[in-house]
Design goal:
- With about 200 residues, the chain is α+β, with helices and mostly antiparallel strands.
- It folds into two domains: about 160 residues, no CATH class; about 25 residues.
- The protein contains five helices and eight strands.
- The radius of gyration is 23 Å and the shape is globular.
Amino acid sequence: MNRFVIADPQWCIGCNTCLAACSDVHKSVGLQQHPRLTMARTDDHTAPVLCRHCEDAPCKRVCPVNAIALQGDCVQINESLCIGCKLCGLVCPFGAITPAGSTPLDVPTQFEHFVPASLLSDVPVSNDSMNPFLSWNAGVRTIAVKCDMCHFLPEGPACVRSCPTHALHLVEPDAVAEQMKQRRAQTALLMPDTLTNHAGEQR
């Protein structure tokens, strides 16, 4: 079992602080600034949706260039290797992978004459509301982004630390194993009483 972050809809207030924190920390280390989580909204509740870092990750299995790998205790995408085919996002059972990209910043002037801006002026641009799996914009290299557990931060995922209502929780394999052990112990203690009551009912 890998680590992952899960949200409690009862405590989430939909403030988007987690998305902003995610964007900021990734941008600061030179990665895509698109948030690694999305906000799901209904009439009554909101909750961030994040990667569950599946043990047998389907995104890893379909990647044609091996840009997705299990590193340590989480599934990570190598943005330099990703070719933007979007297959990983299509097979993700949680909808936790989003195609995203940004235009290059500070393009050297010596390259401007190769593709003058005038040649791209009539190229259609996708609307912001368009599904990211369908959108396409000239000059933008689209790659897959997903939760990487902020592996470059010693203090852990920025979204968990930034949530003002503590609606996000880091699930650790050791903690889950301990909880299962405690539940089995509680069940074992209840079993004698259950068997006694059941025997009495049969009489």
